[in-house]
Amino acid sequence: MDIFDFSDGREGYYGEYGGVFLPEILHATIEELLVCFRECKSDPKFWQDYVALMQSYSGRPTPVTHLENLSRKLGGAQIYVKREDLNHTGSHKVNNVMGQGLLCQRLGKRKVIAETGAGQHGFATATMAARFGFDCKIYMGAVDVARQRPNVFWMENLGAEVIAVQDGQKTLKDAINEAMRDWVTNMADTHYILGTACGPHPFPEMVSWFQSIIGFEAREQMLAQTGRLPDRVYACVGGGSNAMGIFQAFFDDDNVELIGSEAGGQGVGSYMHAARLAYDDATVGVAQGFKTYFLQNEEGNMNETHSVAAGLDYIGVNPIFAHLHDKGKVRFEAATDIEVKEALRLTMRTEGLIPALESTHAFVTAIKEAPTMGKDEIILINQSGRGDKDIFTIADALDDAKWKTFIEGKADQYRGEKN
Amino acid sequence: MALQSFLAERKKDKDLLVMAHVVCGYPSFEANMQELEIMAEAGVDLVELQFPFSEPSADGPLFVHANEQSLKAGTTVEDCFEFMKQASERFPFQLLMMGYYNTVFKMGEETFVKRLKAAGGVGYILPDLPVEESANLHRLSEEAGIEPIILMTPTSSDKRLAQLGAVSRGLVYVVARKGVTGSKTNMGDDVLALIERCRQHTDAQIGVGFGISGKEDMDFLRGSADMAIVGTAALKTWEQSGADGLRKFFAELMA
User: Fold this and answer.
1) Closest alpha carbon within chain A to B100
2) Catalytic: B59?
3) Is-catalytic flag, A205?
4) Can you give the pTM of this predicted structure?
5) Domain-embedded: residue B10
């Protein structure tokens, strides 16, 4: 199936989801982007250049690792992991960002803007901008700026300007609004590097296309390493870009089950989560440029969301998944904050892997299901990012006493230097 | 009276009409009513009542704050329609709903048109609803005698203006510059050229907004546009100097 073949329906729509809902002033900019993207997508040289860049700059192809210890411990399916954590900047975000960087060169624009939640996408964008020589502005909710200082530190040192957004909940969705406001003013020389497979068309398609490199590699690697396709593929779903990245390669493989794991936060009924499809709280709406399932009230105002993983803490989900959920093509589950912390400990101790809190959501669901499967069955997890880079966040999540003592000591030292 | 004929009527005695803006429930509905009284005294012709939304991505900082505070105070869609009803019965100007499409989408387009009509509104401005997505809503509006206000912008090509013009009725909102609401526009020849370009594609009245803040902007638009649209400048005045300040602001603006 080609989800991006719009010849039978409306351009940019996946079932009833997607579309373009933007102020008129951006119409010409989106048209220009769409034309440029179509050219890139139909030009084999563009993709070759992209793959070559990702090989030389980001260490692709990333490996697939067999987790023998964890598989044995759980006593069920054989677990394999696609190692997107080994990318430069530590997550799959760089795939999309480098791709859009190449596209931005074709557009002839010299400035890039981006939103970021946890800071991974902002970090990747600042890295790309430094490499390509673009001016770079990153919009980040003030709450996120306060809790993600290490990523802000790197963005600024890479030469980006980080703007703390003071509106709304001061998190990811507010950063997106503010990036939009910049774009409606400066679109003539500025490209908006949207970080996930959300927003107005062609962003969901474009981001999915760049991320598809994950799945193409993984499918071949699984065939080479295990001689067959996996029975199930797991990925965490915030906006949905890493999951789209790995799932796409298996859309035509009817025997491969695809499972998206959302942020269950404090669980069903808590209203403190970001599970748009796994729980029943979200409804269809139109915001931030597109139509999809949003966590919103009955009048269409957005609700607060929560997750231990800032990268999954978002009100909406990509429109392609909303459609594939309706069709039963992708199954959605949720992992709670508590389950995530347990799974992270288990993965670190048994395999020496430190998945990002976001990616650990996929591990939770896989770890729950693996024991119910046969030893000859195979599952593949997308480890979208690495956790060691987010030591502040993870130390908080794990409530590590020795870490706190260390930070107190550091604080005392800085205070001493000031006086 | 439908918007088109109402505006034509008002234009008989005036060379430049004025549309003002209020964010429903900010700072309060009582304050909104006071603002409307002042606007009516000054002879404002049309007022857009903004229904607050949690993601007002086309608005500048002042309106963003206003949307946020209004929702925080518990403003509902029902409150906004109720306020519109009171205002439409009381004042000589006509009223438009201004807001974001999700507000309409969640109640259903048919319900929206019915409720707007029942509240005495004559049209609506939905900045994030492009014409490609408007066919059904426009059809329902036409049946009800409600006008969708189309936005034309400096980045619109002639081809696009023709598309926009084809579905425009009553009033077209010409966005004077790129960007969001609330910062200053340098009114110059490019704005006049844009208005002329828009006129070639629509028979509707032309209102110009974004960055209109005082009498000099009015003088500039006179003879070119049919209506000046004032938003942020009025709210800023209200916040800085209350009812007296706002009275003075409109008196000077419309002198």
Assistant:
1) A287
2) yes
3) no
4) 0.96
5) no
